[in-house]
Amino acid sequence: MDNTKQDFEKRKKEIESYFNFLLIFDDDKTKIRYIKDGILVNEKINPVFQITLIANSFLILYNLIESTIRNSIIEIYEKIEADEITYETLSENLKKIWIKQKTDKLKENNFKQDTLRGYIAEIANDILNRETIRFDKDNLEFSGNLDARKIRDLADSIGFQKTVNGQNLVDIKNKRNRLAHGEHTFYDVGKDYTVNDVIEFKTETFNYLSDIITNIDHFISTQAYKIKN
Length: 229
Hints:
Largest sheet: 2 strands, antiparallel
Oligomer: single chain
């Protein structure tokens, strides 16, 4: 989990810098000083600009959530491959995920019989010849859809320990999606929140993801991806 931990800490520092910047702009005494036409101008911060910065924090926090979960799951898959785990020794949960990944390409009425036979033969060959299991790291199925409930579902399907709390992750996800899909303006999203509100979201997100990383690290270190004897 070293790569995930390092990336997480790096992103946290970037986010802390952004929120420190937000706090400066949250002070009524803060002004922008610049020179225009040779004249020094002191200007108060436009409230709309501050609201835009608040809204942008949802994008930043969601980016941290998705990158951390993605990196953590990929580390599980890479450890399975590095340990040369076969289907026979893979946990029941991960067997289901691997089979699903292998069959996802088969869409109803969208394949020829020869193609179907080829996929079945490939799966059978991997199992019978005890080939090392390799997961599709691009097939994670949660882009833009991660909140605490979805992460609990991932914990159940993979087998790592769930984490409590994280109630605000659904708000972060929803606000991010409305911005990303152009459903709402930055002003519409940010106007109902203060800087202190989004700081609370940040703190909860940091703590929640730290717990997730700990749980997945334990999952990997105890080789819980292997079938129980």
